[in-house]
Design goal:
Rossmann fold, 7-stranded mixed sheet, 32% helix, binds guanosine-5'-diphosphate
């Protein structure tokens, strides 16, 4: 499938019409710096739809993008940026948890993005618990696989799979455009 249009719709910090307007949503969540913005740009074939390498922890809104005029890509703020103030981290965490538990949004799929070297951190495990608890369909995207050998990637995926109870896992390198087509099909077909 091809993405022919991707446009920014709205940044959300509280209840808003886009949350309930019946356009299907696909949400992306991950720790700050896992490459979420880079993945979004690779998925939609844009250099700058999501801002890469922005000061981590700076994005404080839930950004809605309209894909092919028929689906929302929901970019949740990056969480757990160590250098952000505690207040800021709490604020972002609250916003993510609100979207997933209290906003009324029922995303078709939530993609939890990990950095292959970091694997499943405590933050990610918390996120998995919320996704399961809320019965949100989800996949895991293991990004930055260009940073490890194939063997090391396979080992990391095995560990993540075991910790995540056999969740559906996709490997990717946003930097080298690897694994992107399969993820695009899975999320937007
Ligand atoms: P975000 O904070 O999760 O949105 O992450 P960004 O997309 O801003 O990326 C954070 C940093 O990781 C940037 O320096 C990117 O260039 C880099 N990066 C993103 N994806 C990859 C990847 O697949 N491989 C490598 N080696 N670096 C990546």
């Amino acid at each position: 499938m091809k993405i022919t249009s991707a446009t920014f719709v709205q940044g959300v910090v509280a209840d808003a019409d886009v949350l309930h307007d019946d356009v299907p949503q696909v949400a992306l969540v991950g720790r700050s710096n896992v490459g979420k913005s880079s993945l979004i740009n690779a998925l939609v074939g844009s250099k700058s739809l999501a801002k890469v390498g922005k000061k981590p922890g700076k994005t404080t809104e839930i950004n809605f993008f309209l894909i092919n005029k028929k689906q929302y890509l929901v970019d949740l703020p990056g969480y757990g940026f160590a250098e952000a103030s505690l207040a800021m981290r709490e604020e972002l965490k609250k916003l993510i948890i609100w979207y997933l538990t209290a906003s009324g949004a029922r995303p078709q799929t939530v993609a939890l993005i990990l950095d292959v070297k970091a694997g499943l951190t405590r933050f990610d495990e918390d996120m998995l618990l919320i996704l399961k608890d809320q019965k949100h369909p989800f996949i895991i995207i293991v990004n930055k696989i260009d940073k490890l050998s194939q063997k090391e990637v396979a080992e990391q995926v095995r560990v993540i799979q075991a910790k995540a109870d056999g969740a559906e896992i996709f490997c990717a390198s946003a930097a080298e455009r690897e694994g992107i087509d399969a993820i695009r099909e899975r999320l937007f077909a």
